[in-house]
Amino acid sequence: MRADLDLLFSPRSVAIVGASSNPDRLTGRPLHILRRHGFSGDVNVVHPREAEIDGVRAYPSVADLPAAPDVLLVMVRAGLVPGVARAAGEKGVKHLAILSSGFEETDEGAGLSAELSDIAATYGMGVVGPNSEGFWHLPGKAILTFGSAAMRDDLVSGPVAVLSQSGSIGASIMRNLNDVGVGADIFVSVGNETVLGVADYLSWIAARGSVRVVACFLEGLKDGRTFLEAASAARAAGIAVVVLKAGASEQGKAASASHTGKISTSAAIYDALFDQAGVIQVESVEQLAQAAATLSRGRLRDGGKGAGLTVIGLSGGSRSIIADAASDRGIPLAELAEETTASLSEFIPHFGVATNPVDPTGQVISDPALFPRTIRTLAADPSTLALLVQYGNGGTHLLRRHLPALGEAVREQRVQVVVSCLLDQLAADDPLRRELTAAGVGYVHDPVAAVSTVAPLFRSAATAVLDVLEPVGDERTPGVVGSWDDVVAMLAGAGIRAPREVVVEAGAGPGRIGAALAAAGLHAPLVVKPSPDDVQHKSDLGLVFLRLDSAEAVHAAVAEIAAVLGPGTRVVVQEMVASDTEVLVVLRQDPDFGPVLGLGLGGFFIELIGEMTYVSLPASEAQLRRAIERTKLGRLLRGYRGRPPVDLDPLVARLAALGNRFATMATPPRLVELNPVLVLDSGELVAIDSLVERGTR
Predict the structure, then answer these.
(1) Cis amide linkage into residue 676, ω under 30° from 0
(2) Rounded to whole angstroms, what are the CA distances from 566 to 223, 602, 616?
(3) Residue 141 burial (CB count, 10 A)
C-alpha cells in the first residue's frame, strides 16, 4: 500500500474528468488550482464535447487518453462514476480521486458504492472519496481539490498532516495553519472512504515520518482497530496524532450519519481506545488547529521530578485561572529550584511573587532589561518544560519587544513557549503572528485556552512509553460460545475458573438433590439460581439464593424457582466463593472497533459508580494494566481503606489471555458479559455468571 500511496501523493501525471472551462464553477477550480501551484507532471482533461479547457487538451473518454495517468480526478454525477472507474481500471489508472457526491451518504447511493468498491478491487485501484473535497500534497505539488482554501498563492509547507471526514472542517484547519505561518504538507478530505480510509493515509504518513503531527477530524470509523494500529505506529515513530471526534451524543450521531453514512459507537469506548493507542483528543475545531500548531514545534524537553508548566502572570486572577485550568487538565506546575527563586527575588519587588506562578509586577514587565531576564531565568530552570506568559490588557504592544527573549527560550533552552494577552486578539494573518510562529512561540488570547494549547504537549509526553498495538493476526480459534458450558471452557483456556457446580431440574425431590450434591462433592455454603442459559436477569426476579447451608435449604430454593419458572427449569447449584472485590468483564464485538474488552467494578458498584474502562483486542498486559490503573477499580485493587492490595500480575495476565482468545475466535458471539467475576487476594479470577448474546456485530 505504501508504494501505491507514494504514487497517489506524488503523481507524475494527472487527468481530470468533468472539468469545466468556467473557473468560477466548482468543476472549473481543480485544473486552475493544480496549475497555479506549479505541478510539473503531465495534465490532461477528459470531456466529451470540448477540444481543450483552459489551454489543456481534452480527450473524449478515459480510453482515449494517450497514457494512463497516475491519478484520475473525477467530477461527474454519481451514476456515471462506476463507468468512469471501470474505464480507468481498463486503462491502467492507479488511483481515483472522486469528488462526486451521492454514494453512502444517500439511500439510493449504496449500490453505486458497492459497485465502485468491486471495480477498485478488480483492478487494484486506490480511491480517495467519493464525496470528497480532494487532497493536497505540497512537496509533490499535487493540489487536487476544488476547495477555496487552496485558492491562494502562499500555501505554506509545514510538518503537519490533516485528515478529515469533513472537507470544510479540514480545509478550515489548513487555512488557519497557513494564516499563522505553521503550514501543512498534507491534507486529505477522505470522504466516504469506500476504498481508502483514514487508517491507510495515517499508516503511509507514519511509515514516511516526514511530519510531526497528524490532525484528524472524525465522525466515525469503519475499521477502528486498523486506525488504532496506525495511530500507535505513528506515535512510536514520534508523530503525534490529534483527534476531534464528533457524534458522541445521540443528536451528534444522527447528524454524522446524515453527512457521512457512519453511525458512531459509544463515546466512552472511543475515549478509552484512543487513550490505549496514544491518541490526543481535543474538543473543538479551534483546539484541533492550535494543537497541530503547538505539536508541530516539537516535544517537551526531558524533565525530572517536579518538572512541569511555569507561568508568568501579572494579575492574581489570571494566575489563579491558569493554575485551576492546569489542575483540571492534569498538568503539573513546575517546582522551581531555590537558585531560580533567589535570582528572581533580586529584582522582583517585594509585592511581586518569585515562585510559580510568577508575578514579576508591572514594574518588571515594562522594563526592557528586567523582563527578558525573568524569561531567561525561568527558561533555564531545569523544571520548566513549558512557559506560559500571561500579559495584561494591551499586552500585544509588549510582545514585539519581548519576542527576542521568548524566541531565545525556545532555541537555546528548548522550552515550549505560549503567550496570552487576555482578550487582546491578533488576527491570524497579523504579521506579528507570523513572527511569533517563526520564533516557535504560540499565541492565544484567553488564559484557559493557553493552558489547553500546552496540554497536548504534556499528553504527548505521557504516551511516549506506551506499547505499540500489534496487528490482529489471521489465525482463528475454532469453537462456538453459546452456552454457560462454552463460556466455562473459554475461561479455562485463559486460566479463569468457574465455581464447582451441578445442574438439577426444578421440582426435583430432596433425595435426588442430595445425591447430586454428593456426587459433585459440593458442600455448604452453596448458591442456587436458574441456569445462565435460560434466565438473564436472575437477581431482578429474586431467584438467586446465597449462603445455603444444607441440602434441605437447597431443595427449598429449587422449589421456589420451580414455582416461578415452572417444573423442569434447569437450576444451577454452585459452591459459594467469597471475595470483597467483584468486577464486571464484558467481551463485545464493537461496530467500529471489533473485539473490545470492558472492565469495571461489579456488584452494586455498577449502578453506584458506573465507570468502565475498555481496551481494543488483542491487547498487551501492559496496555490492560494501564487501563485498569487509571480507574476507580485500579484504586480499589491497590488497597483502599484497609482492603488488602491485589496482585495485579496474575489478574492482568488472565484478562489479557481471555481478551485475546475472544479476539481470535472464528465465530465469536456479539457479547459475553461476566458478572460478577470475583477477584481473590492472590489475583485469581472466579467467574460466577454470564450473559451471552449470539449473532454478529
Answers:
(1) yes
(2) 46, 30, 42
(3) 16
Please list, residue by residue across 336-345, b when 16 or more beta carbons sit within 10 angstroms of its beta carbon and e when fewer do.
beeebbebbe
Using DSSP bridges, classify how beta strands 186-189 and 134-137 pair: parallel, antiparallel or unpaired: antiparallel
Could you state, in chain order, the average pLDDT of each consecutive group of 10 residues for the chain (697 residues)? Answer: 78 95 87 93 93 91 97 96 97 96 86 95 96 96 95 93 96 95 96 96 95 96 94 95 82 49 70 96 95 95 93 88 95 97 96 95 91 96 96 82 94 95 80 92 92 95 88 76 89 94 87 90 92 81 91 92 88 90 92 93 65 93 93 85 83 94 90 91 89 75
3-state secondary structure of 436: helix
Q: Evaluate whether 225 touches 197 at the Cβ level (below 8 Å).
A: no
Rounded Cα gap, residues 204 and 194, in angstroms: 18
Distance CA 540, CA 630 (A): 31
Distance of CA 192 to the CA centre of its chain: 19
Question: Maximum Cα–Cα distance for the chain, whole Å?
Answer: 98
CA distance linking residue 531 with residue 691, whole number of Å: 11
C-alpha cell read off for 288: 484541533
Q: Is there a contact between 11 and 24 (Cβ–Cβ < 8 Å)?
A: no
Cβ proximity of 498 and 491 under 8 Å: yes
Angle at 636 between CA 632 and CA 638, to 5 degrees: 115
Q: Which residues contact 419 (CB under 8 A, 6 or more apart)?
A: 388, 389, 390, 391, 395, 399, 406, 436, 441, 442, 443, 444, 450
d(CA 612, CA 587): 12
pLDDT at position 46 = 96
Task: Provide the b/e sequence for 176-210 (b: ≥16 CB within 10 Å).
Answer: bbbbbbbbbbbbbbbbbbbbbbbbbbbbbbbbbee
Q: Is the pTM of this model over 0.85?
A: yes
For the beta carbon of residue 456, count every other beta carbon within 10 angstroms: 23
* Per-residue cell: 40: 510539473
Contacts of 523 (CB under 8 A, 6+ apart): 517, 575
What pLDDT is stored for residue 23 in this prediction?
A: 78
Cβ-Cβ contacts under 8 Å for 91 (sequence gap 6 or more): 62, 63, 65, 68
Cα distance between residue 281 and residue 278, in whole Å: 9
CB 348 within 8 A of CB 342: no
Provide DSSP, 244-272.
EE---SHHHHHHHHHHHS-----HHHHHH
Residue 623: other Cβ atoms inside 10 A = 24
Establish how many alpha carbons lie within 13 A of residue 418's alpha carbon, considering only the half-sphere containing its beta carbon: 32
Closest CA to 290 of 211, 185, 188, 215: 215
Residues composing the chain: 697
Question: CB under 8 Å to 371, separation ≥6 — which residues?
Answer: 360, 364, 365, 398, 402, 405
Dihedral pair phi/psi, residue 674, rounded to 5°: -110, 110
Strand-strand pairing, 213-218 and 186-189: unpaired
Q: How far apart are CA 663 and CA 481, in angstroms?
A: 13
Q: What are the cell numbers at 191?
A: 470522504
Q: Which of 194, 443, 435 is nearest to 294 (CA)?
A: 443
**Identity of the residue numbered 388:** L
Cα separation, 209 vs 201, whole angstroms: 12
Q: Are 361 and 351 in contact (CB under 8 A)?
A: yes
